[in-house]
Amino acid sequence: MKRYITNPPFSDSILKTVLFSSRHFASSAATAPLDLEDDIGGFTGASFGGIIQDKDLLRKTPNGLYVLGLIDNGAMDPNATLYNQLLKRCTQLGRLKEGRLVHAHVLNSSYRNYVAVQNSIINMYAKCGSPVEARKVFDEMAERDMVSWTAVITGFSQNDRAQEALGLFVEMLRDGFVPNQFTLGSVLKAATAVGEMEGRQIHAVCLKSGHGDDVYVGSALVDMYAKCGQMEEAKVVFDGLMSKNEVCWNALIAGHARKSEAAIAVRLFSEMKKAGFEATHFTYSSVFAACASIGALEQGKWVHGHLVKSGLKLIAFVGNTLLDMYGKAGSIEDAHKVFDRLVKRDVVSWNSMLTACAQHGLGRETVECFEEMRSRGILPNEVTFLCVLTACSHSGLLEEGLYYFELMKKLKLEPDISHYVTMVDLLGRAGQLGHAEKFIKEMPIKPTAAIWKALLGACRMHKNIDLGAYAAEQVFELDPYDSGPHILLSNIYASAGRLRDAANVRKMMNDSGVKKEPACSWLEIENNVHMFVANDDSHPQRNEVRRMWEKIADKIREIGYVPDTSHVLWYVDQQEREVRLQCHSEKLALAFALLNTPHGSTIRIKKNIRVCGDCHTAFKFVSQLVGREIILRDTNRFHHFRGGSCSCGDYW
DNA sequence: ACACTCAGAC
């Protein structure tokens, strides 16, 4: 067999690579599709003359080794087109090793200085994840054209090396090249990764060179503004595009999804379909993620309907997001159905199902699901254990939690800080405050603010003032601008009757400029989202809503509700505190729901911060009074109120 | 014959 390495005109490093690769493929029966020597044995150059035109030639060995064998054997004369086809093949299949072999062949041929072939080589290295090799070929070229520049810039842009891509772009301009739509598409992607300033500068270049309305450049621009959070500007660019495709629609929709603007994302999805574009898995995934973030169940279901009609398979890529959406929107039943119907489940599918169970306080079911996962031979990962530990923590399964933490380490999975936070939470909620403190002292990584926040939360739950104050001090040190811990500490003092200390924490907060996130609750009725903020008068039905709550409050008092004003911070008299308490956003939302939804239907309310103790009690009484299920989504879990009790068992 | 845009979930 003729070896092409006998008289190498190319550099040592490539030679070594080629030798290595060549041996590798020859010796590895599992990866080499066929033995080159056997495959071409007995044929002569002449008999292969016609095969060069044969479209099946490259298909015989998809990675091109077959053809390289023919060339090696002298059975076939290559030309520039053939090399380009081979390189394209390697690029499409992401075959770096075979690509290097073709590169070596080219260097040994008379086509080594052909710009088009060199460009294909650059492109091959760029797409196969090796921008450095692409750059090396580029640097050694005697002459470069637009395609060379674009290919090498794209190499860095697509391999998360945006700064180098932008650097090359500047060099290109310095060399006198005027960028075209191909270059600008890639450069914009790089600029987007670097920052808003850079993005805007490249936008200016696009406008100057007249490529601003190309659909590729335009999509990249829409994405750039969307990633900066500048949705108005993204929309201006989008509207200015004469011809659109699914990419620019997806970029715009994903931008709104990132900002949790579910209503807009859903509306755009609908407009996209009306305009005649097919929603892809990515489109669905973005829209479901948007619905998940605000718990928009009805809108999510509506889009799910479109997915079913579209005929797209329920693969994990979109199914996992859909499952997550149902979990976060409060329908554990629908989450289960999606899980059952998935074409193929991956570890994330299982993790999402576990998360959904955990969020709904179904600790036992989570553990059962995890055991089923293991019995089916699915390998759990770090996230799996985080789900299980969270479930144990939320359901008070102390022993199980400790067991699974040890199991995790036994399976050689290293707990990260999130697992330690969950363990502190687990121990703390279960009332093992001393154990939790000891756990923190002994953990192998430095405790973060989140660790101390978990301990602080447990101290509030079990009314431990001293340890709570200590934990709060640690949090203030590590994360001074979070209002949550201030409020927690203040509540600890207030519920122990130490109102002066509570007021001091409040004052400290004000002095250091820490702002409390305004509490708000919202619910969805017939595709509209109604939002309520405590003591807020902006809703059109506010007077009706308030009167309704007063009526309800009177009725639940008759069956045992006693307002608990201990968590009201304001240093005001008892009557005023009670008035404030009755205006909490979740109570307003509940009153609104009772006014505007059919009798007997499930009420679903979402809240941006943890539900207050008094509202939790009131909701239990209301569920008994009206005989309806009320599902309240907290920051990280669900409360299902039914018949006077809550699924969390008052353990949250 | 060679170069471009978006991109889910725990």
TrEMBL record:
Localization of this protein = Mitochondrion
| Ranges occupied by PPR repeats | 145-179, 245-279, 346-380, 381-415
Listed GO cellular component terms?
mitochondrion
**Gene Ontology BP annotations:** RNA modification
Q: Does the keyword Plastid apply?
A: no
The record's InterPro entries line, in alphabetical order, gives: DYW_dom, E_motif, PPR_At4g14850-like_plant, PPR_rpt, TPR-like_helical_dom_sf
Every copy of the DYW domain together lies at 560-652
This entry's Gene Ontology molecular function terms read:
RNA binding; zinc ion binding
Keyword entries, A-Z: Mitochondrion, Repeat, Transit peptide
**What's the family?**
Belongs to the PPR family. PCMP-H subfamily.
This chain belongs to which protein, by name?
DYW domain-containing protein
Query: What organism does the UniProt record list as the source?
Result: Coffea canephora
